[in-house]
Design goal:
The chain is an alpha/beta fold. 47% of the residues lie in helices and 20% in strands. Helix 4 (96-105) runs parallel beside helix 11 and helix 7 (185-193) runs parallel beside helix 8. The N and C termini lie far apart (71 Å).
Length: 317
């Protein structure tokens, strides 16, 4: 009889806990959401995330606060979120660098499985950018000079997506750049404009204002864009691959599915807002909403490619 009463009590406690959990997920969000950008202010990740966060704040009815926690090539901010509660109130701005490249090329306290992928909201095509009055006015002349010496190229970390993409591009083009690392794409562009480095691999949110004001020149880009109709693509030079960055949000592992669904549905709504679409278009970012199992499979495939590339690069040292 006592055993039966104990079972009844345990069942009652379990039911209360289940209801409480469901209620908490169902009421999400009911307090501010923090989105950590693991890079400095002004870069493409920061800019694209702030557009998303501002629109989500209006849609969700709670503050969505973007905090830059830069350092360690994105590791410091990303690690902070890995160690956060899995309640959906602390998210990481995820991208190619911090969740797919860095865990394979560096010793860090996390890997892809440390997160719950939530969604991707924007893509940015990579380009090779020089100063407007650079002696290299075409990608052909740039390659020719690079083959004779070591062209300096700005990126944002030794194990960043920019550096890895640039190495793949350079290998196919037959040259070896000397990398100069900054903490953001924006700061790499400042170094280009200032004449401190020959070039930078960059994305439209960072290089666009400089190109449009004739302070910089795009030699080549991943894909044709309306804002840069005369800029050739990597494919035009026989360079194979897709060279783009992307911006999205991941949560710590174990976040409730209801939270993921709420964020996805809210993002679907804001991506119909002309103001949001215009904001992305103005910075040269492409709206690219992806989520769910198919997207995660693609991420895992890319993660595997990066893992193989890391093994190959380590073997070549």
């Amino acid at each position: 009889m006592k055993w039966t009463k104990s079972l009844v009590k345990l069942a009652a406690v379990a039911a209360i806990m289940f209801v409480a959990t469901a209620a908490n997920a169902g009421s999400y969000p009911n307090k501010p959401i923090t989105v950590i950008v693991p890079w400095g202010a002004g870069g493409d990740s920061d800019l694209t995330t702030r557009v998303w966060a501002d629109a989500m704040e209006k849609e969700l009815g709670v503050p969505v606060v973007v905090i830059n926690k830069a350092g360690g090539g994105g590791v410091i901010g990303t690690t902070h979120v890995v160690n956060a509660k899995s309640d959906g109130y602390t998210l990481i701005n995820a991208g190619l660098s911090n969740v797919l490249v860095t865990p394979n090329f560096s010793e860090v306290p996390y890997d892809f499985n440390s997160f719950t992928p939530v969604l991707k909201f924007a893509a940015v095509p990579a380009g090779i950018i020089v100063k407007a009055d650079s002696p290299y006015q075409t990608f052909d002349s740039f390659i020719a000079a690079a083959k004779k010496g070591r062209i300096t190229m700005g990126s944002w970390g030794a194990a960043s997506s920019g550096t890895i993409l640039a190495k793949i591009i350079a290998d196919q083009a037959g040259f070896t750049p000397k990398f100069v690392h900054a903490n953001t794409t924006a700061n790499s562009m400042i170094s280009v404009i200032g004449g401190h480095i020959d070039s930078a691999i960059s994305f439209p949110p960072a290089f666009g204002p400089h190109v449009k004001s004739d302070r910089a020149k795009a030699l080549v880009i991943n894909a044709k864009m309306d804002d840069y109709p005369d800029v050739p693509t990597f494919a035009d030079y026989g360079i194979k691959g897709s060279f783009e960055g992307w911006s999205g949000v991941f949560a710590p592992k174990g976040v409730p599915e209801e939270v993921v669904s709420k964020l996805v549905e809210a993002t679907k709504k804001i991506m119909q807002d002309p103001k949001v679409l215009k904001a992305y278009a103005n910075m040269g970012a492409l709206v690219d909403l992806r989520h769910g199992d198919d997207w995660v499979k693609d991420l895992l495939a890319t993660y595997g490619i990066m893992k193989e590339a890391a093994i190959k690069m380590k073997a070549e040292k």
